[in-house]
User: Fold this.
Amino acid sequence: MTIEKPPVETLTEADAAEELALLAAELAHHDTLYHAKDAPEISDADYDALKRRNEEIEARFPALVREDSLSRKVGAAPSGIFKAVVHSRPMLSLDNTFSDEDVRDFVHSVYRFLGVLPDESIAFTAEPKIDGLSMSLRYEAGKLVSAATRGDGTTGENVTANIRTIPDIPQTLPSGVPEIVEVRGEVYMGKSDFLALNEQMLALGKQTYVNPRNTAAGSLRQLDPTVTATRKLRFFAYAWGEMSEMPADTQLGMVKAFEGWGFPVNPLMQRFSSIEAIIAHYRDIGLNRPDLDYDIDGVVYKVDRLDLQARLGFRSRSPRWATAHKFPAEQAFTTVEKIDIQVGRTGALTPVARLTPITVGGVVVTNATLHNADYIEGIGNGGERIREPDHDIRIGDTVIVQRAGDVIPQVLDVVMEKREPGSVRYEFPKTCPVCGSHAVRERNEKTGKLDSVTRCTGGFVCRAQAVEHLKHFVSRNAFDIEGLAPSRWISSSKRRMTSSGSRPRRISSRWKSARASPY
Assistant:
């Protein structure tokens, strides 16, 4: 249950001090889980909400800013599993923006700080924000000598042996590079590789992974590099630390230099000179997000000229010349690959969209409920319009998917600009896909309205209904028969029995009583 917090402007100084202490502890807890243990408990949206609350209170009560506040630190301290590495230059985090207005404020703040009128004379780069693990690679005399995680921004973990197993990362650089080169970027796992790994885990009867980011981070922290080598990790370069000589004088020029040295760089990175252009690029990247084989959670904007970056400088934990424009954490764009029909215990035919995998709210989503035939057409249960008349859901459509908390993902709307010219409306089946019996929508005799649900008329003739009835019969809400379940559940139960040394109870007391009854 979420407890509504009072508005910041109503807090007393004592209330603010107490809440800042709680926020410092809570944010530190979640930072450790995310950065050091790769096991977050909350979504990015929930974390960002805590962070914004902390910033708002500190802005109103600057004298109460704590030494352990999130505003004074980056990431989390190294775990201690690997040897510590002190970064030659701090690895800072970025401030976040969440709206077009926030982006305009960021750009205007750059002009105000530099004393330049907003005449579009300052260029900005815009590139996808990769959802992976930040990494700093140090080369001396053209050879890779160390690789370190971000850690707390000052000290990271030495994961050089594991980094050497990633094919994307060169072990040596071409002749002519500076004597000291620190290339920074993101280690990530491709979505296709993540899905293949989960298929492999399922085949072995092992627990699957939640999302590519956590899997990549956990793979990189393996004590055995041969395990890391099997995980197919990848890398994008986009920044730098210590450089004995600068090969370019712009952000884009530096990234192009990295590409020339053999590092993978993101092809979607572009340079723009207006606010509207970078926001348009943000929207284009968001729309094309389903087609990318890697997870992104926003777009990063940076002042392009390095001399202007130097003039803008840094705040305590972030640069003034860069910001991350985050995507809505609980929504994403993806593609409907096909629509399947599931038959329930009561014969209800429920359409399910099979989606191009996309990470929404920290979880990889591959399916979303379409509820019924009316929902596909954009009509609600009460007969009201929930989408525009031509925004029916079709196979091949790019759609907006929402997932909030534990709610089953659902398709909110269709992106009409991405609809293929030859697409056709989805025709809801008139027969059961399992048994072939007629599928009908019954009419309410009192109201005369059609039921929103289409049902199979086969009853127990329909194998799907029979199976669902059996599942309900043995479920906890009915006879609660333990040990009777799909084979994969039984397998996991046996694994738990082996690990705990005790056998699970086979039949509940409720079932024993019913079995003993003469009725």
User: Anything to note?
Assistant: The radius of gyration is 27 Å. The first helix runs from residue 13 to 36. Confidence is low (pLDDT under 50) at residues 489-519. The chain has four domains: 8-72, 84-326, 331-440, 475-516.
